[in-house]
Specification:
Layout: H1 2-17, H2 19-28, H3 31-54, H4 64-83, H5 89-104
Helix pairs in contact: 1-5, 3-4, 4-5
Amino acid sequence: SGGSARLIRSSWTVINQSRALLLAAQRALPPERIRELHEEPMRRVQELLARGRAEGAFRTDLPESWMVATFYSLMHAAAEEIGAGRLDGQDAGHLLATTILAAFGPASSTG
């Protein structure tokens, strides 16, 4: 849905803006502190996923915890690709929304 794509893009914007800070934090902070910093954004993603699943916009045949982990892994992969010069930051929001919505869309019933 449009709302899901918007939330994915806005989540990306926040992560992209704090990319340098996140990289520095990962070098300097203990893992439990980094997890604490992720708790609020992860809660927002979990709420989005739960709402999308309830509305039939997202698949329900995968564990929600796996979907949250996938979401964050893709966000961080995009940040790393931009940092390495392989991805234009202007393209990342669209690419992430397209990829995540394709992965999380309702499972096909034609299997």
